[in-house]
Write a structure and sequence with these properties.
It is built from six helices and no strands. The protein is mainly alpha-helical and about 120 residues long. The protein has two domains: about 60 residues, Winged helix-like DNA-binding domain superfamily/Winged helix DNA-binding domain (Arc Repressor Mutant, subunit A, Orthogonal Bundle), CATH 1.10.10.10; about 55 residues. The two termini are about 35 Å apart.
């Protein structure tokens, strides 16, 4: 069974809707990188039971993400805040070295653009 590591962010985002067993099995499988056999032994269930629990949990998480897009939005927020931080640091560096008016304007515009994108996300929901 191939692991789709994008499920890790879905587990972080939506794990509260899973049963305790599904949440635990998914965390053991994705976060702790245990095999189906290792999880079966820990949980006292068959390998097939572990596989079924993982598949059901994955289906629930994928369905929630397809409807709500919370994990995708969270990742976008992270990318935008990193862009804002990087451009702000560039502005500070340009200001310290002097004579970089066009670079300062570009970095400032990028900060404005990123903050407007964040505002769109906030207003969507």
């Amino acid at each position: 069974m191939a692991k789709d590591l994008s499920l890790c962010s879905l587990i972080d985002t939506y794990s509260a809707v899973l049963t305790d067993k599904q949440r635990n099995v998914l965390r053991l499988y994705y976060d702790d990188d245990l095999s189906l056999g290792e999880i079966a032994e820990l949980e006292g269930i068959s390998r097939q039971g572990v596989r079924d629990s993982i598949k059901r949990g994955e289906a629930i998480l994928n369905e929630l993400e397809s409807q709500l897009h919370f994990a995708d939005k969270f990742n976008s927020f992270g990318n935008l805040t990193e862009s804002i931080r990087r451009n702000a640091k560039d502005i500070l560096a340009y200001a310290d070295s002097g004579g970089y008016t066009s670079q300062i304007k570009r970095a400032a515009q990028s900060i404005v653009d990123s903050s407007e994108e964040l505002e769109k996300f906030i207003k969507e929901d």
